[in-house]
């Protein structure tokens, strides 16, 4: 459990800065590429950990959606395995882009369980970001999250220090934590 979230949120804000900086560069050194990849992965792990810790992130931040692109797997492509997983252009229809909104926790889970995680651009304006798919989704689709979406999420979570109230579930009597938005009517304090 996370007791003091500042020690998780401050590094998350630094990760957002580096991802933003590196995503604007034409090329990265090996060391910069490794730092970017680490920040991307550890940042999403941090987001998930904070979301799953009682009272560390507001309901409003927890409900954030990210704009993703996804590409279907090529019908004739071989099974995605350890040997070919970075050959995304051979495995997925990168010219057949679809768009969807997904909640931040969905993206965090997929990144943490990624079977493929490759930085790059998704064409259409050469938007930089990251391709990823989990071990569950690898035979169906490859996702792309723009760097700007990742940076925005990391900053939102890193700056979120809500005031919390405790409440009881009226049906079960279980004590729960909520971090309501100010306009939330169930907030009594």
How is this fold's topology laid out?
Blueprint: H1 6-23, H2 30-51, H3 59-62, E1 65-72, H4 88-91, E2 98-103, H5 104-112, E3 114-121, E4 128-134, E5 141-146, H6 147-158, E6 165-168, E7 175-178
Q: Which keywords apply here?
A:
disordered C terminus, single chain, alpha+beta, 6 helices, 189 residues, two-stranded antiparallel sheet
Output mean pLDDT. 89
Spatial sequence of strands, sheet with the most strands: 2-1-5-4-3
Shape: globular
**Overall strand count:** 7
Rg value = 18 Å
Q: List the helices and strands in order.
A: HHHEHEHEEEHEE
Report the sheet with the most strands, covering strand number, pairing sense and barrel closure.
Answer: 5 strands, antiparallel
Q: Extract low-pLDDT stretches.
A: 183-189
| C-alpha end-to-end distance | 25 Å
In which range does the helix fraction lie? 25-40%
Per DSSP, the total helix count is 6
What is the number of independent domains? 1
Q: What percent of residues are in strands?
A: 15-25%
Assign the structural class, choosing from mainly alpha, mainly beta, alpha/beta, alpha+beta, or little secondary structure. alpha+beta
């Amino acid at each position: 459990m996370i007791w003091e979230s500042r020690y998780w949120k401050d590094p998350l804000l630094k990760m957002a800065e580096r991802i933003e900086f590196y995503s604007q560069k034409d090329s990265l050194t090996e060391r910069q590429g490794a730092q970017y990849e680490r920040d991307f992965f550890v940042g999403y792990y941090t987001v998930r950990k904070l979301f799953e810790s009682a009272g560390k992130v507001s309901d409003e931040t927890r409900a954030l959606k990210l704009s993703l692109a996804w590409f279907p797997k090529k019908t004739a492509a071989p099974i995605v395995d350890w040997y070919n997983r970075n050959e995304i252009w051979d495995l997925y229809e990168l010219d057949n882009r679809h768009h969807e909104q997904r909640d931040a926790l969905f993206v965090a889970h997929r990144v943490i369980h990624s079977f493929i995680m490759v930085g790059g651009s998704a064409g259409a304006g050469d938007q930089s970001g990251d391709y990823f798919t989990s071990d569950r989704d690898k035979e169906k689709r490859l996702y792309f999250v723009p760097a700007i979406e990742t940076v925005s999420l990391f900053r939102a979570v890193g700056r979120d220090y809500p005031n919390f109230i405790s409440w009881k579930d009226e049906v079960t009597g279980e004590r729960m934590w909520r971090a309501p938005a100010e306009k939330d009517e169930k907030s009594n304090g």
